[in-house]
Amino acid sequence: MTEPTPRRTPAGAAVLREDVTEAIRDAVFEELAAVGFARMSIEGIARRAGVGKTAVYRRWKSKLSLVLDLVGAFAAQGVPVPATGSLDGDVRALLEMASYALRHPIASQVIPDLLVEAARQPEIADAIRAALLDGQQGVMARIVREAVARGELPEDTDPAEALDLVVGPLYWRLVVVRTPLPEGYVDRLARAAVAALRA
Amino acid sequence: MTEPTPRRTPAGAAVLREDVTEAIRDAVFEELAAVGFARMSIEGIARRAGVGKTAVYRRWKSKLSLVLDLVGAFAAQGVPVPATGSLDGDVRALLEMASYALRHPIASQVIPDLLVEAARQPEIADAIRAALLDGQQGVMARIVREAVARGELPEDTDPAEALDLVVGPLYWRLVVVRTPLPEGYVDRLARAAVAALRA
């Protein structure tokens, strides 16, 4: 059986296969936004991608593996480690990156959707941990380590609690309260978070 | 047509009606935990409650109105306003209450589920705002007002940003990271949050 024809016209068979894969990935993303994980179906994804169901099942065994793939790709972009030379600068830089990342639909819509599923499916909990937390926890651990080395933070500063203090307020505002950030918000939050870390 | 028989045996018709209502409310709660909002159906609720679908539709027009009713009841419990006489004490008391409330399944599972739906259904966004935010924002506004009056906070302290700093880290830890609170966590967070508020 030949690959169903995707919407774009490819130059050759290899391109065709990649185009189908990309069309499916785009369709998953659009379906997640439109109907959410629970209601999403392989049929709906295939229809939106303009391919047959077999084309989807040949690549991914279930809608869960499709979504984990998407979240994994988002996580793989990685979180660059700020190295501004001061705790103030590093916290400010981490907040800038987090405020950008948390406005991405993967973070503001897809991950909260999956967090809810995670209570019922442990595989999802692990994928989210990898996508949302591991990167940020690693970055925060390094920021704390360097600040301790510079004498800016006490030696017993817990990196996980530091991450709560820095990223928690921003997550709450962007994902829960969902009001636009007022002018100067990230600056004020950076100052407040550094004071909290030093308390 | 008579009311379908609920699982418990009631003493009379009035009791019967209330029992059915309660059985349906319990069933909604259990269904939300088991399958989530998107997959939940009136059929499933009726089956779990041991009543007919008509018994549900006689009381609520849709699964949305059923869930909004449940969230509304949670919100109506209200958030007591701490009045300890100091900013430290009030923040500590608010965090104690929030850490209790955020561990309730309505806050840790049902509301995040509905937050995801809220992006697609504005009615849900309004109900969550009322259930999760209005109460806490009101309490925080009062804590800030009294702290300003005592000279503990600057006059231009924004209550919404204050709430981000106090509740955000706890929400992130309990609802996103989902690891148990380490010993002394609420105390450390209260101290850090007060330092953040004063920064």
UniProtKB/TrEMBL annotation, chains A, B:
Task: Tell me which InterPro entries the record gives.
Answer: DNA-bd_HTH_TetR-type_CS (IPR023772), Homeodomain-like_sf (IPR009057), HTH-type_TetR-like_transc_reg (IPR050109), HTH_TetR (IPR001647), Tet_transcr_reg_TetR-rel_C_sf (IPR036271), TetR_C (IPR011075)
- Which UniProt key words apply to this protein? DNA-binding, Transcription, Transcription regulation
The record's section on PROSITE patterns has: HTH_TETR_1, HTH_TETR_2
Determine if Transcription is one of this entry's keywords.
Answer: yes
Q: Which residues form the HTH tetR-type domain?
A: 18-78
Q: Which residues bind DNA?
A: 41-60
In alphabetical order, the GO MF annotations are: DNA-binding transcription factor activity; transcription cis-regulatory region binding
**rRNA-binding among the record's keywords?**
no
- According to UniProt, the name of this protein is TetR family transcriptional regulator
Per the UniProt record, the lineage of the source organism begins with: Bacteria, Bacillati, Actinomycetota, Actinomycetes, Kitasatosporales
